[in-house]
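Troubleshooting: if your tokenizer reports a length mismatch, compare your output against this known-good record of 304 residues.
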Amino acid sequence: MKALLEAGVHFGHQRKRWNPKMKKYIFAERNGIHIIDLQQTLRLTKEVAKFVMELGLSGGKILFVGTKKQAQESIINGANKAGGFYVTNRWLGGTLTNFETIKKRISDLNKLESNKSGNKPQTKSIFELTKRETQKIEKNLSRLQKHFGGIKDMKKIPDALFIVDIAKEDIAVKEASKLNIPIIALVDTDGDPTPVAHVLPGNDDAIRSIQLATSLIVDNYIYGCQLRLEKLAEIAKQKEIEKAEKQKISSEKDEKNKDETSKKPTPKKEPESKNPAPKKESGNKKPTPEKESGNKKPTPEKES
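Known-good structure output:
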């Protein structure tokens, strides 16, 4: 609460500029200035912190939006620290709702930057061009960097928007609402909190108030990202343990099978049956019957 008071978060706009939809967040009126109820702000910061932490835990990305001068530095620093994206110059219509076209412009920016650095050997370096060509390219590059420098690494629609001054950034609010992208916003007494999913009632003009709100978003988002990394590391570690266990079980099983195989008695070879070989016939031939002598059997004499 002390930090909120010191940052001047409780100072709203003049009564004549108020939006009646912010009535429930207003504590009182002093000298024509609305005073924001910091009890509600403090309560809502806890809800916002939880949402942003869970966003970091799930790997979501935030687009930081703040084009007013007081917000630009905090928005850029916060987005860079959180690894998010930012818009600090004029919000171009279609940045979200016509993102495919925006991606082509981002691609042009990346090509020009790559060409300027000489990373593409087949492309003529900017230092090899004529003075007039160089000036033309530099002008185009500067314009693209101004509008797309903060989102040049944004490959897809962000998972949430953090906006400072929704009254000023009304186009961004409309586009995010159309695409059902959650909005977190520092909302002053002149804003309409209706389309904002996570309202932070507070002074959106004071630099310290903006810094405090941005730090709340960034710090809790980073905390969520750290939890995500720890969770992923734990999952990876668990997978390694499970893998090692499976390998151990498989190895033990193979060793057991090997031991069982080595201990298993080998069947004794049965002695070859020595059946008596059939006797070979002796060389003496089987006696053949004697041939009758050449003398013929005497025939009986004829009687005279």
